[in-house]
What we know:
By secondary structure, the protein is an alpha+beta fold. Among the domains are: about 5-35 and about 45-85 and about 715-890, no CATH class; about 415-545, no CATH class; about 600-670, no CATH class. It is built from 29 helices and 25 strands. The strands form 10 sheets. Strands 17, 18, 19 and 20 form a 4-stranded antiparallel β-sheet that branches. The chain is globular and about 75 Å long. The protein starts with a strand and ends with a helix. Ligand LLGJG24Q binds near residues 162, 302 and 307. Its EC number is 3.2.1.28. Pfam families: Trehalase. It is an enzyme of class 3 (hydrolase).
Amino acid sequence: MSARKCAECGEVHLAGANGAIYCCGTLLRAVQMSNMFKDSKYFVDMASRYSPDRILADWQLFCSCKKNENSVKHLTNFVENHFEPPGTELEAWCPPDWRCEPAFLAQVKDPELKKFASELNKMWKSLGRHIKDCVRSNPLQYSLVYVPNPFIVPGGRFNEFYYWDTYWIVRGLLYNGMAQTARGMIDNLLYIVSQYKFVPNGGRIYYWGRSQPPLLVPMVKSYVEMTNDRKYAVQVLPILEMEIDNFLSNHAVQVKGRTMYQYRDKSNGPRPESFREDVASASGFATNTEKEEHYSHLKAACESGMDFSSRWFVSDCGNNVGTLANIKTTWIVPVDLNCILFRNCKTLAEFNSWMGNTDRAENYRMIAGNLIKAITAVLWNEERGVWFDYDLKNKVPRDYFVATNLSPLWARAYPINNADKITESLMRYIEENKLDSFPGGVPHTLSNTGEQWDYPNVWPPMMHVLIEGLNNLGTPQAKELSQRWRDRWVRSNYEAYKKTGFMYEKYNCEVFGSGGSGEYVNQTGFGWTNGVLIELLAKYGQELTAKDPADAAGCVCPEDDDKSTGKPIVDEECPITSEAYLAQKLEKSQAACATPVNAECNGNGGNTGNAGNAANAQETETGCSVMCCRTVYEEEEEPALIESFATSEQECQCGEEPIKPDPVAKAQTPCPPQTPPQAPCPPQTPPQAPCPPKAQPQVQCPPKAQPQAQCPTSTVNVATATAETRASIAICPVCHEVCDKQEKREKPPIFSLASAAECADPCKASEPKPIEIEMEDVDCLLDLTPSQLEEATAACPCDTEVVNDGCAEAQARSAEDGQDCGESPSVAPDCSVGPAPPNPMLRKVFPLADSTTGNCFDAKPQEANNDDDDHCICCRAKADARAENQKECN
Ligand SMILES: OC[C@H]1O[C@H](O[C@H]2O[C@H](CO)[C@@H](O)[C@H](O)[C@H]2O)[C@H](O)[C@@H](O)[C@@H]1O
C-alpha cells in the first residue's frame, strides 16, 4: 500500500475514496442515523463488497427512488447487499512465539496466581489477528488500515490495533517472552508513520484526524531494554523522530510564555464510529460552527484516550460539572501528554547520542528541558502539592483529582532531588482524596458523571502508571503504597476473572473484582489489562499472593457491616467503602463550612479551597454558600494562582479580591454544585455476577501451513481491478473528481481540483459526488489482453468510465437493439425489495478471489478474460442516471 498524497497540499491521507463511505457522506449519515445497528461502530467496520465508486453510484440510484425514502427496511437491504459483516477481512492468528510454559511463569510463586498467569498467557491466542491479503491488494474496500504484521487486538468490539493500548500490550508480550510478536506490532506502527507521519487513534481510516497518547518511542525503548537490541533503536530512529516532530508541531500551545502541548483532532463532523451519539450531544448547539467546535472537543478527548471524562468538562462557571455538552478538551493543557512528550524527547536524545548525533541529541534534550520547566511552572501546584491540568480559557489550574495528576511520577518529569518533598505532599493529597480507600483500585476521577473515564471506573493503564510512578519516586512511603495498590489490583482482577471467566477493559473501584461500565458495554479480552497483569506478575511474582495475608490474620473488612447501626465498620487497615468515604467527606466539608475563614492576613490566600474554581458564588456539597476570592498578584511575577473560599465578600483576606458574580450571567446559568463523587450504591454485597463460563473458549492454533484464507466473495469493477487501472480512475477524496488519466499513467495518483486547505480534510468538501454512470456508449473494443485493457483505459476520454462488458451479452443486445455493444437496458429498480439491484450492464464484474484456490487476486486481472469474443471494453459517458431511473421507479 502506498500513501495517498495530495499533489496540491502534500498531505497524505489515511482515507482515500473509501473516506466517502466510512468517514463522511450521505450514506454514512443515513445508516448511522437510522439506528440500524445497536453499536454505531458496527457499520463503519463492515467490509465493502464493491469499490467505493460503485457503492456510491448504487447509493445515488437508491436515493433517487422515492420509495426508499425513510425506509429502514430498504436501507438495511442496501447495506446487506453492499457490505460484509465486520471482521471478514481478519483471521484468527496464533503468535508463532507463543509457548505453553513461558519463562515468566517460573517467577510466579503463588500457585493460584501461577495458574492465573498461565490463563493470561493463553489469552494472547484469542486476541491475535492477521489481516487478509485482500486488504493489502484492495484497500479501498475496507475501513481497516493495512499493516504488514499480525497483531494483538484489545478485544470485544475493538477488532483493530489501538495506538496507546499497544504500549501495554507490547510490554506484556515482552515480559511474556514474545519479543517477535511485540516487534511485529511496533514495526506496524513504524510502517504507518513512515507513510502518514503519525499513528492514528486506531487501525481504521475513520480515525484519520487524530492520534492517541504518543507512546511509540516508549514502546521501542521497552523493546530495546528487554532485548538489548540497540541497533533496532538506531535503525528506526528517523521514523520515531518523524512522528514526534510532527506531533510537536501540530499540538503546541503557548502557556505563560512557554510551549506546551494539548490533545487535538483535525477532522470535521461527528465521529463516524459514534455518529448518532455525537449528533445527539451536539443537538443543543444552534449553529454549524458551534456543532463543529463541539465535535472537535469530543474527538480531541478521544485523542487523549480518555473518552469521555469530566476531566474535559468546563462549565460556564469554570468548574468540571456538566455533561458532554460542556466538553472543552482543547481549552485544557493536560498533565499526562506533556509528561509523555518530555519522556519521548529524553529517549530520542538518548538514542541520538548512541549514534553520535550530538546536535540532534542536544535539540531533543533542550525540548525535554523546556518541558520539565513548563510542567513545574504551569502544572505543579505548590499549594495542593500535586500537578493539575491547566484551564487556558479561565487561566486557572483544574483542582480536580484525575489519575493523570500523578503521571509525572511515571515519566520522571520532576526535579529528582525533590523526591522527599513530593512524596510528602502527594501522600497528603492521596489521603485527602481517600485514594487508598477503594477496594477495586484507584478511580480515574472522583466525579460520577456516567462517563466511562469517571468515577467509579478504574482503568488498567492508569493503574500501571500509578504503580510504576510511585515505585519510581523511590521513597519508602511511595514504594509501600505502590506495592499496596499493585497487590490490590492483581487480586481484584483475579477475583473478577474467577467470578466471570473474563478480563475486562475497565473495572469498578467500589467493588473488589468487578468490571466497570460506560460509553459502550464493557468489553472483555482484554489487551491492556492482560499486558499490565503479566508485567506485574513477571516483575513481582515472587512477592504477590492471590489472597491478602491480612485477611487470614482476621482483618475486618467493610463488607462486614455493623448490623446494629447499618454502617460499615471502617477498619484503617482495610480499604473502606465509597459510602464511608462519602460520609467522611461530608463530615469534613460540614466542619469546614461551619468554621469561618481565618481572618489573619498571611498574604497567601489563607483558607485555600478549590483553586480550580474561578467561579462566582458556589453551592458546596453541604449546601452552604461560599464566595471565591483570588489572590491579587503582579503580572510579571507569574505565581501560581491561589484562590480561597469565603462565606461572604468581607471574608476575603488581605491581598485577595472577591470574584464578583455577574448577576445576569448568574441568573441565567446558576453555578452547578461542586462535583460530588456520588456513589449511591453501597458495595457491601457485590452484585452477584451471572454464572460464568469457566474460561474463555480458546482459539485453536491454526495448522502450521495455513491454507490461504477465503476472501469475502466480492466483485469489482474491472476498472478498479489492477493497481494501474485503479489509479486511472483515482478519485480525489476531497473533490470527488476523476483525476486526469494520462497523468495517472506516469505518476502515482494525484488529486486534482482541490485547494490546499480542502486537501487536508477529505470530509471537509461538500457531500461526496459519486461518479454518475450512464448509459450511453461511446465505443466498444473487443478481445483485449491485460495490456490492451490498460491501453484502452488510457484511451478513454476523461469524462467516461471504462466498462468491460460481457461480449456475448453485448453482441446479443447489439443485434436486438441495432446498436453497438453495451447499451444500458432499462432496468427499473425494484423498490419493493429496497436498493436498486446492481445493474449488470453498467459494469463488468470479476470475482476477487480465485474460486479454485481461494486466493485473492493480487491486483491482477483475470487471465481468462483474454478469450476472444468473450469480453469487450466500453468507455461510457458519465451522465446523470437519476432522472431516467426516477421515472422507472415512480
Ligand atoms: O468507539 C468509541 C471510542 O472507542 C475507543 O475508545 C476506547 O477504547 C480504546 C480501545 O481500547 C481505548 O484506547 C480508549 O482509551 C477507550 O476510551 C476509541 O479510542 C475512541 O476513539 C472511540 O471513539
